């Protein structure tokens, strides 16, 4: 194991370089979105369709161009966007694990990533699915199945949920990486053990403004990418079919497709931002170099002085191969 021979260049990056490296990774690992993210996202896609597709299907019976249909279609678009926003961290668990392996391995295994995701199911499902409001909001939407539009429920409530989720996600964006890669325990009887809450405070508080501002900047950029992608899909459909109005295909297929595609891209950007934050705050690049040299000199890490306060063990998936390939992002 050569900890200092990573396949993703471990160095400090600007936000523009993080976005550039995300595109490089998607080019090198094109299955990130089309296989990995789909593995984690398809149950949420099916659930969203069951919860919300009845709205455009019902309105289509009376005409989607009807003025009264606008409120119902706005309701559909609002809840769909909010659900995808809340579900994306949970849908991206397999991709996050795969990216953790890709730092050290040239050809990580989707089967291994999927197996790890299954082993940790209840941990990430509780934190990312329940505590991050994805499941509770799905239950709220289910309660309103086949009910008419209501301003309080379909406008005020989504806005409140979105603002709360926005504040939580911007303040602590790297919760998935701490659960899936660092494997921090949710609770521990050992006072010296780093639990998830202690680790979240240690990683996010010292760089709170920097992490939050970067998260908002990335979110705005991804919103613009979503708009461009959605209208591109509508344009392609118009060119192919000659039908330019918003119909059921646009509402039921193209709109969720654009949302989930941008959601998958956000998982890659977040993972790279997590590595960058660790390098800035904890000198993770130096830690890897010291540990790699200790392993070369002593055969293990026993020669490394122990830190005064315990920190989580190696947070990125342990490599299983010494195969060395060109490092991704060296020129980024």
UniProtKB/TrEMBL annotation:
Chain ranges passing through the membrane: 32-56, 76-100, 121-146, 152-171, 215-236, 248-273
Lineage, broadest ranks: Bacteria, Pseudomonadati, Planctomycetota, Planctomycetia, Pirellulales
Protein name as it appears in the record: Uncharacterized protein
Species this chain originates from: Stieleria maiorica
Superkingdom of origin organism: Bacteria
Region (Disordered): 301-332
Record keywords, A-Z: Membrane, Transmembrane, Transmembrane helix
